[in-house]
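User: I've been trying to design a sequence by hand for this structure and keep getting stuck. Would you show me what you'd pick, starting by listing the structure so we're on the same page?

Assistant: Good idea, let's start from the same input. This is the structure you sent:
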């Protein structure tokens, strides 16, 4: 899910955990759950419950909030003319399956990840009879500068006359600020040739005023993924300015505690802990 096999090893526990979370909450297919996900979910059940009792966020609440909001924003874009989607670092996300079922041949959905995870996802979707001309899984290292398995090569296979949305869910928190800004610039360049180019992603800001329960949650998350997480060190205004510098002309951040898609489901992510980026070229 990141730009190396070492990064993939650190991130893979969350791919399994999120897959299990989505299945348990009716958002996914059982084929997209794994035994590792069931194990990780059981391991974190007590810490998650303790965080909720203390008034803090839970990992499940954060995952469900961001997933539902990105779903809602992507639906809006498809209804406004986007007909192609690339989900980068797709892991065991059910979005490609659900949106392909919903829109059929009117939507081309490409799921992309590092080779090992991409193969696992490809096998699961084949069991679900979901793959076809308009729904496929490809190998991708999104941090690679051109060549095989790069974003630049992948977008060459898409139709620039149609709108394209690129989704990164659960990726940015593993990237330091400079790597993230370089990724934003790469995404903006990739989207430029398309009739409509949209980028959707979750986004975490390191707020100095965050409470004890939120700091404890960050430590738990870092330990879970076996590595350091990197919340953005600036504020919302700095993030939007960085997105514009990267090449996006329109930018907005949706607070996960305020967006109707999460609030209506009672799945807020925690006090101002997480936002969703919506940017267009």
């Amino acid at each position: 899910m990141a730009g190396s096999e070492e990064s993939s090893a650190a991130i893979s526990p969350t791919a399994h955990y999120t897959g299990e979370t989505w299945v348990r909450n009716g958002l996914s297919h059982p084929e997209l759950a794994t035994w590792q996900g069931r194990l990780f979910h059981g391991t974190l059940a007590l810490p998650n419950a303790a965080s909720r009792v203390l008034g803090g966020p839970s990992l499940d609440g954060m995952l469900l909030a961001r997933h539902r909001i990105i779903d809602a924003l992507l639906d809006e874009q498809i209804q406004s003319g986007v007909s192609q989607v690339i989900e980068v670092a797709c892991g065991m996300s059910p979005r490609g399956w659900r949106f392909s079922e919903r829109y059929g041949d009117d939507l081309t959905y490409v799921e992309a990840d590092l080779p090992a995870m991409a193969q696992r996802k490809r096998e699961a979707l084949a069991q679900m009879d979901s793959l076809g001309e308009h729904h496929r899984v490809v190998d991708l290292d999104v941090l690679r500068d051109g060549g095989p398995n790069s974003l630049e090569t992948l977008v060459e296979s898409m139709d620039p006359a149609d709108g394209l949305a690129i989704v990164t869910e659960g990726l940015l928190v593993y990237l330091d600020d400079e790597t993230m800004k370089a990724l934003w610039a790469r995404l903006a360049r990739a989207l430029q040739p398309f009739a409509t180019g949209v980028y959707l992603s979750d986004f975490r800001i390191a707020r100095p005023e965050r409470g004890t329960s939120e700091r404890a949650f960050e430590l738990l998350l870092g330990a879970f993924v076996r590595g350091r997480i990197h919340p953005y060190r600036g504020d919302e205004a700095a993030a939007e300015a960085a997105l514009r510098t990267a090449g996006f002309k329109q930018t907005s951040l949706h607070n996960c505690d305020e967006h109707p898609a999460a609030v209506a489901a009672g799945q807020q992510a925690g006090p101002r802990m997480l936002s969703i980026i919506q940017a267009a070229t």
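That's my pick for every position. To get oriented when you compare it with your attempt: The first strand starts at residue 82 and ends at 88. The CA atoms of residues 17 and 177 lie 25 Å apart.
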